[in-house]
Amino acid sequence: MSPNVEPHPRQPIFRRSGEEPSLPGDETKLEPKPEWRPRYKGSDRLKGRVALITGADSGIGRAVAVLFAREGADIAFAYLCEDDDAEITKDAVQAEGRRVISFAGDLGNQQFCKDVADATISQFGKIDILVNNAGEQHPDKHLQDITEHQLRRTFQTNVFGMFFLTQAVLPHMKAGGSIINCTSVTMYAGSSSLLDYSSTKGAITAFTRSLSENLVGKGIRVNGVAPGPIWTPLNPSGGATKEKLEHFGESTPMGRPGQPNEVAPSFLFLACEDSSYMSGQVLHPNGGTIVGS
Asked: pLDDT tens digits for 53-83?
């Protein structure tokens, strides 16, 4: 963590007694290991740019960070508390020849988000790309099983944190900047066991479209990515029931879960000039599931 950012309390909020003590999940312990390394050589599509990515210690966030680094971007990333995973991400970014800084803390804390943005500016001088990827989810079969604490916490991480960090970054972002928010196939198809999580993803999609309208005149594009079932620590570490994990991803037309490095190129496309005429849109790397726009 950068010396410019003080640690923020997080364990008492996330590690609740008797409830999913393994959240947010350690990728170093996950079997089989997710595939996050880029599949192709870089072509300088993000040369000279700075990207701030949340939840990049593992999963989709890590795959995005390393792919962006391969394409020439320096990387700042925020994560909750999985320090071992974060070190792997940092090593992988540095192996691509790019600079990297990381920040551990609770994105649901507005001051932490401001500190992250300020420290990134202090270290790198600018923020060209913001990827709001971090999130949490909890399976519950019945609406009555969702506690007030869980509901507030899920929205605080998935929605409030996205608002807070975007608010902190915008004063530093110039025309040509790109904001990419991670929504989900559950926003479109629904999920009977992820009621609160799916609701946050609906809010994120609406936020993406509305923020696009708000910022398009300033030359800042805002888009989203809605992954389907992707093999990351989020699912086996609390986001899915044991029964669901046994058949995870089998319901997609492709009959399997996706890998993080199959999702990261969607973020790259929306971050670079290849998508210069796109804003307010959502891409769907979801294994072939047909959803409404």
From this structure: 999 999 999 999 999 999 999 999 999 988 9
Give the position of tokens 């870089």.
42
- Cβ proximity of 133 and 56 under 8 Å: yes
Measured CA to CA, the distance from residue 284 to residue 182 in angstroms comes to: 10
Domains detected in the chain: 44-283 (3.40.50.720)
* pTM for this model (two decimals): 0.89
Alpha-carbon span 36 to 66, nearest angstrom: 8
DSSP 8-state assignment for residue 239: I
Pairing status of strand 100-104 against strand 74-79: parallel
Chain mean position to CA 20: 20
- Catalytic residue positions? 197
Provide CB contacts within 8 A for 151, sequence distance 6+.
196
DSSP 8-state assignment for residue 57: T
- 102 vs 189: CA distance, rounded Å: 34
